[in-house]
Design a protein that fits this description.
Blueprint lengths: L1 H30 L6 H9 L5 H10 L4 H17 L10 H13 L1
């Protein structure tokens, strides 16, 4: 069925975007000379408990340069939306949205 094929394609797009975000995060960690790693970012997102957790991630990249701030905020938001969260059953908000969309189509 077409809808299953579409869902599979969207799932692949989410996975591909996650890989792009990981690469961008690695570059940003290096550029900001952060002591944190990609695993720190992923773990913080996966184990998020409250809104302060997004602030923790932003702090990982804060090198005091205001020019980096807007890129950093966009990247952290993308990571938050595309990386898995334990509270969502180990899937990302993007995957949860896709799951919801597929359920309402039926």
């Amino acid at each position: 069925p077409r809808s299953k094929r579409d869902a599979l394609q969207r799932g692949r797009q989410i996975f591909a975007r996650r890989k792009e975000i990981e690469q961008e995060l690695l570059e940003m960690l290096k550029a900001t000379k952060s002591d944190f790693t990609l695993d720190h970012v992923r773990d913080t997102i996966y184990n998020e408990e409250d809104n302060n957790d997004m602030q923790k991630i932003i702090a990982m990249f804060d090198d005091g340069d205001p020019e980096n701030l807007s890129n950093m905020l966009e990247l952290v938001t993308d990571a938050w939306n595309y990386f898995p969260h334990k509270v969502l059953g180990g899937i990302s908000p993007a995957e949860k949205l896709l799951e919801h969309h597929n359920q309402t189509k039926i």
